[in-house]
Amino acid sequence: DDGSAGIGSQVETYILSSYIGFGSTSVEQALRSSGFVVFTRYTTGDPSINARMNNGCPVIDQNPVAGSEVYAGSTITILADCPMTGQW
């Protein structure tokens, strides 16, 4: 540590956690509260009904991957797997 942590040019970085298996709603809220932009993609299921009933749908993929170093304000994409509801 060279002691320059207080300099304004420093950009805060985070090591991304793994969000796989968590509900997409809480993941979105957690990431947004940390200052990230969240883009949620869905598999072929119906996100609207599941998101209202549960905590969103389980996250099955994320980009950047867990362990990546990301800057505050970065965009994080999560892929949520929602089951089909059968409502055609």
Throw out a few tags for this protein.
alpha+beta; single chain
Distance between the termini: 59 Å
The percentage helix is 10-25%
Q: What is the tally of helical segments? A: 2
How many beta-strand runs? 5
Uncertain ranges: none
Largest sheet: 3 strands, mixed
Share of β-strand residues? 25-35%
Quaternary organisation: single chain
Radius of gyration, in angstroms, nearest whole number: 16 Å
Q: Strand pairing plus helix content: what structural class?
A: alpha+beta
- Inertia-based shape: elongated
Strand order of the largest sheet: 2-5-3
Describe the structure.
This protein is α+β, with helices and mostly antiparallel strands and about 90 residues long. It contains two helices and five strands. The chain has helices spanning about 25-35, 45-55, and strands at about 15, 35-40, 60-65, 70, 75-80. It has a three-stranded mixed sheet, covered by helices on one side. The radius of gyration is 16 Å and the shape is elongated.
Summarize the structure.
The protein has helices at residues 24-33, 47-53, and strands spanning 13-15, 37-42, 59-63, 69-71, 75-80. The mean pLDDT is 86. It contains two helices and five strands, in the order βαβαβββ.
SSE arrangement:
Blueprint (H helix, E strand, L loop, with lengths): L12 E3 L8 H10 L3 E6 L4 H7 L5 E5 L5 E3 L3 E6 L8
Parallel strand pairs: 2-5
Antiparallel strand pairs: 1-4, 3-5
